[in-house]
Design brief:
The complex is a heterodimer of chains A (294) and B (260). Chain A has 294 residues and is mainly α. Chain A starts with a helix and ends with a helix. Chain A contains twelve helices and no strands. With 260 residues, chain B is mainly α. In chain B, helix 3 runs parallel beside helix 6 (127-152).
Amino acid sequence: MTVAWQGIRIKAHQLLRLFSLEVLLLLPFIIFVGLFEVYPILNMAYRSLFDLNGNFTLENYINAFTKPQFRIALRNSLLFAAAASLVGGIGGTFVAALAVRLPTRWRNLLLSLYGLPMTLSGLVVAFAFIVLLGRNGVLNLLVRRAFGLPPTVYFNLYDWPGIVMVYAFFQIPLMTLSMAAVFENLDPNLIEAARNLGARPWQVWRHVVIPVLLPGFLAGMSIQFAGMMGAFGTVLALVGMAKNLLSLQIYSHASESTYNLPQAGALAIVLITITGIVLALLSWSARRLARRGP
Amino acid sequence: MIRWILLVFLVLYILVPLLMPIIFSFSVFWQDILPQGFTLRWYEAILTRPANYEALLVSLTVASGAVLLNLLITVPAAYALNRAGPGWGQRLREGAAILPLLFPPLVVGTALLQAFTRPPLALTGTIWMVIIAHAILGFPFMFRIVLAAFQTIDERTLSEAAASLGASFWQRMRYVLIPNVMPGILSGALLVFAISMGEFEVTSMVAGFTAQTLPLRLFQQIRNDMRIASAITAFLIYVSFLSFVLMTYLGARMRRLRAT
């Protein structure tokens, strides 16, 4: 009894010490995130409930869903984020599928290279594509010369397809990195076993490959969609405010001529809420699929 | 065969766009398909024009500050969260991963802008605000790498072994743990540095006129002078590229560590 009692006491004592040490080490992180991320966002949410004179109002939120300018922005943002995520998601999955079939050396090289865009400024990429594909960009000139076309013919970088294409330069590599890890987890023995048990190719896909890949794919898509909802740097560099996106509306109300911080705050809360709902849906379906399993 | 053709195509997909500003930055002018002449004049303009040079210094200061802040926050947090159990520890680890998804730079910028306008923390528009904002953006990236490093070396077993030989907490840190996770810490620091050097979105919201970083200068120059813009762009690409070469080297070292 005494031994057991002592054993428990020592354990509890150690546990307490370990716990407090960990909390101590977490303090810088908790203080930093609390003071510079959680508090500012709560503060922004609170202020979004007041007008510019400091009177309580829900007008900023009503505006967000009734003013044509914001409604179009919201619709554009959803369509743009969905399109760019799909391009990135499909492209990245394709690149990752190729990468895992390469010899290790080449795979590592390819994956390192596809890590590069993550740190690149949106402006850098915008500039690069203006030189390459702008109205008189190198590729447009080449194609025009080669086929003897007039200067009125060019790939338009400054419309939605062009903007999605430029963002794909960020999105495809990002998805490649997520999916490479997922593909590496796909055990070839599992596929082999399914085949040996007499599964047809579509059955292998349906019951083995897709259940393993889909949760990772959906997780990757969450990152894609969330990133695209908030993106504005590259669009701003390409077309200024000529395109209407929710992110650009927030930016312009927070720091440009149409300065109205409570309105920007309300739009930001709307953006967080929409992103949150989409992320929750994606994570819910990933969990459901994982539970059903192969 | 098709595999290798695709590989070449995929490598070119990243390299060709990034080569454009670099070629642009070394040429006297580039109006036609091929650029004309060779010059270093546009790089010189970064160093000799006060506005550009100051922006370079501000950028270096901000990036170093963001790295230092992240070292103080990330390394202890990753150590603690690696030890934390599956309950609240797992929840915090997942929380740290989802934070940047829910709160993109745009939202962080809009929020920071209005949170610190009054004393004692009147930070908006100062270089401090830019450093803090960059540290927040860099944190999830660095945290993931350092946490992975602690997991890779199996920190608990290593610590227990060291403790059984009589090493105190600080001795274990100093002689066993920190040297072993160093490649991870350095990789994370490089990533934070590179992200900070190129960051435009949050910076343009919180910086004001006193903390003009290089990307903010670049944004003005894209409209004014493409040639100086090309030199700044090329410089930012070199920074990213160098960080990635070093990170790849460190990553290879980490893999070798795991293999042994």
